[in-house]
Amino acid sequence: MMDWTLFGSALLSSTLFPGGSEALLIYRLNQGADPLASVATATAGNVLGSLITYGMGRFGRQAVQRRSEKTEQNIERAERWFTRFGRPSLLLAWLPVVGDPLCLVAGLLRVGVGSFLLLVTLGKLARYAALAWFV
After folding, report:
1. In Å, how far are 3, 56, 84, 85 from 102, measured between CA atoms?
2. Which residues are CB-contacts of 28 (< 8 A; sequence separation ≥ 6)?
3. Of 30, 75, 115, 132, which sits most exposed with the smallest number of CB within 10 A?
4. Residue 97, Cβ neighbours under 10 Å: how many?
5. Any long-range contacts for 17-24 (C-beta under 8 Å, 24+ apart)?
6. Total structural domains in the chain?
7. Both ends of the chain: CA-CA distance in Å?
8. How large is the average pLDDT for residues 47-54?
9. Which domain, by its residues, includes 71?
10. Other CB atoms within 10 Å distance of the CB of residue 2
11. What angle, rounded to 10 degrees, do the helices at 21-30 and 4-13 form?
């Protein structure tokens, strides 16, 4: 059975809103949840949230132009990362502060959705799997 609370938490925490899906994953695992199902659920929610952020960049240029100063600084930082490291920087989309703006920048720069999904999924899966392994 799908853990919709974990899925929702992971989805929200991978958009431009703050969240704590890692803490909920650890809690669920400590309560005896299946590690594979929990990691898959958290990864799926987190990737979907990143895809939403990507879509905001790709299709919402006007909304992105009306962003806050803090968001602007994070996007500028993400643009520098993306310019320096290219598409492989999307493997780091799980990082706090810079990860969500990386997804937004990928959308703004019209990175192909296939490579976006592959790289973001690999990075986020590795993060949740490592977390589950250490718990």
Report:
1. 27, 12, 12, 11
2. 3, 6, 38
3. 30
4. 11
5. 21/45, 21/46, 22/128, 22/131
6. 1
7. 21
8. 94
9. 4-134
10. 11
11. 150
Query: How confident is the model over 77-131, as pLDDT tens digits?
Result: 767 877 888 889 999 999 887 888 889 889 988 899 999 999 999 999 999 999 9
Which pLDDT band holds residue 48 (cuts at 50, 70, 90)?
A: very high
Distances (CA, A) of 30 to 26, 86, 120, 126, 131: 6, 37, 26, 19, 12
Structure tokens at 34: 């299946």
Among 20-29, 34-43, 75-84, 86-95, which stretch is predicted with the lowest mean pLDDT?
A: 75-84
- Tokens standing for 68? 């806050």
Instruction: With CA atoms as reference, report the closest residue to 9 among 97, 1, 17.
Output: 17
